[in-house]
C-alpha cells in the first residue's frame, strides 16, 4: 500500500496522520455533544482536548520509543527517527497514559468530576481507535502471521484489504482490521449502555472501555508479529491484563457499594464534584437543625 495520501512538492501528506487526526476530531465532537447535556462551558471539552491530545501523542511516542531502543533499527542507532511520527510508531497504551495524566490534572484544577468526564470521552476514543488502525493498513504494519488467500477469503474479508495484506508476495492476517471492528462494536455497545441503562454510575463507562478493549487486544496481540516485547512477554498483553482487572474490580465496586450514589445522569445534570458528595453541606445541616429545633419548641408550647 502507498502510505502517501498526496504530496505537494516536497510536502508529503500521509494516510496515517490524516486518519489519526480524523479520529481525534470525531472523538472531540462526540465528547463535546455529550458535555452539553451537563451545561458545561462551550470551551471546556476543547480546552481539555488541547492538553489531552498533546500529552496523548507524546505518551504514545515515548512509550513506543522506549521499547524500541536497541538493535540496528532501534532508536538509539537512529535518533532522528524519534521525531518522525508520520512513519508510524504510536502505542495506544502510551497514549492512554499520557492523555489520562493530562485529564486528571485539568479536571482537578477546574474541580470537575474525573469519572464523569472520562464518560464523555471513551465512546469517541473507541471510534477514534477504530479509524486510526487503518493507518497501519496504509503503512503495511501491525499485521499478523502469514496465511493463505483461501483462509482470508473464507473470513469474508473485503478484497481490497486482502490485496493490501499481500506483502512481498505473502498474505498476512489483517490484525489492524480485526481490532478496528472490535473497537467499532464496542463503540456501539457503549452508546447503548449510556443511552438505556438507567442506573449507570460515574466511572462505569470507563470500566467497560477498559474491559472491552483489553479483551480484544489480548487475543489480537497474540496474532501480531511486531509486538513490543518485555523479555519473552508481549507488553500490550501484560498492560491489557492489568487494565481489564482494574476495570472489572472497579465496576463491581461501583455496582455493589451502596454508599456510592454518583449516577452518571443525575437530576440537575451538573458535573461538579459537590453533587457527588454524599455528606450534606454545612448550610444544609444548619437549616435542618434550626427547623427541627423550631418544631420541638412549638410542640412544647402546645
Briefly summarize what is shown.
With 302 residues, the chain is mainly alpha-helical. It has helices at residues 15-35, 44-66, 92-109, 114-132, 134-138, 149-154, 159-164, 175-196, 204-223, 235-256, 282-301, and strands at residues 4-8, 11-14, 146-147, 166-167, 170-172, 229-230, 233-234. 60% of the residues lie in helices and 7% in strands.
Search tags:
302 residues; mainly alpha; three-stranded antiparallel sheet
Notes on the structure:
The protein has helices spanning 15-35, 44-66, 92-109, 114-132, 134-138, 149-154, 159-164, 175-196, 204-223, 235-256, 282-301; strands at 4-8, 11-14, 146-147, 166-167, 170-172, 229-230, 233-234. With 302 residues, it is mainly α. The protein has one domain. The strands form three sheets. Strands 3-5-4 form a three-stranded antiparallel β-sheet. The chain has a two-stranded antiparallel ribbon with strand order 1-2. The protein has a two-stranded antiparallel ribbon with strand order 6-7. A hairpin with a 2-residue loop joins strand 1 (4-8) and strand 2 (11-14).
